[in-house]
Structure formats: C-alpha cells, structure tokens
Amino acid sequence: MQRRTFLQSILPAAAAVRQLTAQPGLPWGGPVLDTHLHLRPDADACFTHIQGSGVTRAVLLTAAADEDRAKAEMERRPGRFARSVRADPALPGSGRVLRDALRGGAVSIGELKFHLALDSPEMRRVYDIAAEMQVPVMMHIQTFPHFAGELPYSTGYPQFDKMLRAHPRTNFIGHGDLFWAHISADVPTDRGYPAGPIRPGGLTDRWLSDFPNLYADMSANSGNNALSRDTDFTRGFIGRHTGKLIFGSDCSCTDGKGGGISQNNNPEASRLAGKCVARETLGLLQRLTSPEVFRRITWENGIRLFKLPA
Ligand SMILES: [Zn+2]
Ligand SMILES: [Zn+2]
Q: Residue 111 C-alpha to ligand 1 middle, in angstroms?
C-alpha cells in the first residue's frame, strides 16, 4: 500500500478517536446532555449550572405553569436548552395541558412525581399521550420517605412490567430511589438508598433487558448511589444496557461545582453534600466506561430519545 493511500485509510478512524477522546473546550471530552435539570426561579441560573459542571445542553424539567419562564431561558441561551412539561395527571384538563405544551415544543413529559399508582387510570392516560405525541415520559419512583410524613410517589413498581407490556408504544424513563434500589434482587424496606454489594436479578436490571420501551435516568443520589455501591456489578450493568442509560443530574447546587445546597438537604443523601451531582456521576462514568460508551450514555442516547438536533 502506498503511504498516501495508507494515510487516507487510517485518517478518518484516527480523527474519530480524537473526537471521542478530546474536544477542546469540552471538559468531559465531548458534548454532554443533562436530561434532568429542574427549571430554576432565577434567570440564567440553569445556564450557570451547566457551564460550571461542563454540560453542553440540558432538558429543563418544567411545570406547565412555568412554560413561559422556560421559553425565556431557552431564548437567552440559544441551542443550550430544551424543555419538558408536567401537569398533575389527576387534575381535570391535564391531558389538554400536556398536549398543548408538546405541540408547542416541549420534548418530553416529566418528571411525574405524584401520589398516584403507576397503573392508575390517571397515569395510564399520560402514557397514552406520550405514545400519541411520540415523546418519552419520566417518572419519579419512591416509596421510602426522605422526610417524616412524606407520602410515596408512583406506587406499585413491583408490578410495573404489566404497564411496560400494556403500553408498548410508550417510552418510559425510570428514575428515583425505588427504581434504582431494584437494581438489586434484595430491596430493604427501611431505607431509600441501599448500600453494599448488589444481588443479581433485580427487577430494574431484568426489565431494562426485557422491554425495549424502558430507559433509566441516572440522575440524583438515587442513580449515583446505585452505580457507586458495587462497581464490579456496575460495569456489567452498563455493558448490558449501554443503549438504555441516560445521563441526568437532578442537581440543585448553584454553580455546577457543589456550591449552595445539593440534593435539597435530603439527610439520606448527605454523601453528596457539598458536591455537584452532575460532576460526581460524570466522573464515575468516566472511570467505569470507555470514551465510546461514555459518549453514548452522556449524549447520544438522550439526543435520540428526546429527538433533539445533534
Ligand atoms: Zn425526582
Ligand atoms: Zn451541581
């Protein structure tokens, strides 16, 4: 092979590798999409967080009533944000509110954090809207209280496979304490964030394999804790579900570096106090994955599922 021909044949591959390993100005080596950033009351505060944590773009989780505020953030920083919509499925007219926002540019439904059963008629109406409008729906699944008197959200997870089967055209994104506790086959009932070795065969692990319409949002202490507690297990888990894992932070720190109050002062999540969840989980993923897998989980999977321009 002539030198010129040889160089021509290896150059594209070399360029692709370079692109994956180091893109100048991108702290994580490539673009990162945070699919779980709550819209903040102060103008440009979400931008401060993505800049500080090295995130390129974020989905602003937005209550229907705050839609105009989310649009203002998007206009202020073109190309950096998309927005979701949420409305209480039990309120009359919520279906129309969701459809209107989705027709107006919202890219997903969520997060749904309500005191409803996952198989309730109210939630199932939302799953139908997600299928009809071809957007994913994300649920916060938590039964153990963070604070005294806190009621459970999205109950009935052990039977959720019935919903995954009954709504095959709906793309579900699981998130929250109980969703991630079920990464293991044994789930203690006296805490929200189990520690220590994972027993293989957990519901979440099995369903991610069995159902093409289930995805996992790795945000918050729930995602970070589950992926940190047994990293030998996590390597296999990421390998099994590379196309189903979606990076998100759910971080409430002010500056993307751990300032202010992280994890809303949730006492059980104190392991992340003073830390930025986005940085912690991105660092963990970087240690556990190859650059190719890191890019899929932190960018490509979310771009595809939320149908964002690449
Ligand atoms: Zn949540
Ligand atoms: Zn943060």
A: 7
